[in-house]
Prior knowledge:
The chain is an alpha/beta fold. It has 2 domains: 140 residues, Rossmann fold (3-Layer(aba) Sandwich), CATH 3.40.50.720; 179 residues, Dihydrodipicolinate Reductase, domain 2. It is built from 13 helices and 15 strands. The longest helix has 20 residues. The termini are far apart.
Amino acid sequence: MKRLNVGVIGLGRLGRVYVRDLAGRIPETKVVAVADPIGNLAKEIAAEFDVPRSYTDPLAMIDDNNVDAIVIVTPTHIHREQVIAAAKSKKPTFCEKPPALSLAEVAEMKAAIEKSGMFFQMGFMRRFDPGYAAAKKEIDAGRIGQPLVFKATSRDPFRPSLEYANPASSGGMLIDMGIHDFDLARWFMGDVQKISAIGATIAYPELATVGDIDNAIASLTFTSGKLGVVDLTRSGIYGYDISTEILGLEGTIRIGYLRETPIMVMTKAHGVSHDTVPYFIERFRDAYTNQLQNFAQNVLQGRPAPITIDDGMEALRVGVAATRARESGGSVNVADIKS
Length: 339
């Protein structure tokens, strides 16, 4: 089997998982280089996963002739520079969500991608989760009839660090966290026409010091006239709770689970109890692997990317519209968001 020689940029918690999967769990790939500007992190990860080369300069890794494809798992505010550099090299590239912090930056990325003719795939791993993928097939097959209402809930068990939450680097909660649900909304229901949102810092006052919120609710109207609602929280202290429901004319599909281990304890003294999903790495462990394998297979087999820079741009557009709607207290037409 031909294998794709991959270089990974960004070796934080998720980046390390990506290196692990690409190096040992996906038969179509081989990690030949890793890069991260922080200290000796790249050397340490390279040693752990038997990767021959490591870099503190990601742009130098992109220029490495031994690297056939790039996987970008860096903070959002760095994506533009690295994607444009990858486009100049014309190497197939996978980039984590969100594509960037502004639509203007994404437009630059898109122009560079189109000019180079490179293969580019966005990372929205929920589309590759077995539950979400199965739901999409059922809906496309007409199992629940015409979809009418989209409902999504995303609850983190604790707040992120203040450094991470800072909208200057993350885009803020409605973009960084909500973009997954906004992408799913578009995937299941089509484009969003109008959005309104409310949000506040009510669980972790310290988030206000960097300008972020910890709870939000967004109401969506799709171009088809159908409806949607997305609720987000940083304070789901009981576990990582991700769920989606699509109400159709002839039925409903619910996606998600909360109990991590298939066991329930039932006693007179303590009632009924079970554990919960710890966090996103555990909940979407298969989805992360599946999307990277899909990327490699697409490159090797010459297949088109299932998630493009346009998908990233439109999901970000919804997120920016939601952010502005929350700030203004009114509804925002998504098509009016240009930057």
